[in-house]
Write a structure and sequence with these properties.
- By secondary structure, the protein is of the alpha/beta class.
- The protein has two domains: about 120 residues, Rossmann fold; about 100 residues, Winged helix-like DNA-binding domain superfamily/Winged helix DNA-binding domain (Arc Repressor Mutant, subunit A).
- It has eight helices and 13 strands.
- The chain has a five-stranded parallel beta sheet with strand order 2-1-3-4-5, sandwiched between helices. Strands 9-8-7-6-13 form a five-stranded antiparallel beta sheet, with helices on one face.
- Strand 6 and strand 7 form a beta hairpin.
- Helix 6 packs across helix 8.
Length: about 230
């Protein structure tokens, strides 16, 4: 999953970026409203963390421009501790959630996970496809209860597919959502990651749709539904 962090306070931005990266997200950072506006309109993100007090263009204006341009990415706004008016204005401008400064990083990460789940119609935190289970909070994957150890990029590929069950996901889309903007991207490595995932999972849940991409489906067998699901 790929996150846009819009924060002009350098120390806080570095701290949040590091925590997001440790949690398995690809992160782009914008330090002013003009850059944020451009990135949000031209890059595909799974969620945005948006500070309202930005140079060059304030966060509320950025958010309103995104929504006017039909940019529907989930947005978590950061506000001053006691500024209830900013919270109201942010929600009215199209924000999906807010968090007051100062905040605990664990709460920020929990809210981002919730925003991404809701954006994909998922109400519970653990994802499941047949015998494969993923816990994004813990960063764990298991097959029939046995833990599977994945690299960070393998986890990102599986995470994105698990959030899009039954949908055909192109290599381009995977590349755009598992790498940050400043990473040297190569869509051919997606085939490598998928191949490794298939070997490590040991079950046939990732289907190749020739000429289009990949689709996550549970393996055939008793007790398996026709499409992946979420489980508590």
């Amino acid at each position: 999953m790929r996150i846009l962090l819009v924060e002009d306070e350098a120390a806080l931005a570095a701290q949040v970026r590091a925590s997001l990266a440790d949690a398995g997200y690809a992160v782009d950072v914008a330090t002013d409203g003009i850059d944020a506006c451009h990135l949000g309109e031209h890059e595909p993100y799974d969620a945005v963390i948006l500070d309202l007090g930005l140079p060059r263009l304030d966060g509320l204006t950025v958010l309103r421009r995104w929504r006017s341009a039909q940019v529907n990415v989930p947005v978590l706004i950061l506000t001053a501790r006691d500024s209830w008016t900013e919270k109201v204005e942010g929600i009215d401008a199209g924000a999906d959630d807010y968090l007051a400064k100062p905040f605990r990083m664990e709460e920020l990460l929990a809210r981002i996970r919730a925003l991404i789940r809701r954006a994909h119609g998922m109400a519970v935190p653990e994802l499941q496809c047949g015998p494969v289970r993923m816990n994004p909070r813990a960063g764990t994957v298991s097959v029939d209860g046995a833990t599977v150890v994945l690299t960070s990029h393998e986890f990102r590929v599986l995470d994105y597919l698990m959030h899009h069950p039954g949908a055909i996901v192109s290599k381009t889309a995977l590349t755009e959502h598992i790498y940050a903007q400043d990473f040297d991207r190569d869509s051919n490595t997606i085939e490598v990651f998928v191949g490794r995932l298939r070997r490590k999972l040991g079950v046939d849940v990732i289907e190749t749709v020739r000429g289009q991409g990949y689709r996550l489906r549970p393996p055939p067998g008793p007790g398996n539904a026709d499409a992946p699901s979420t489980r508590a």
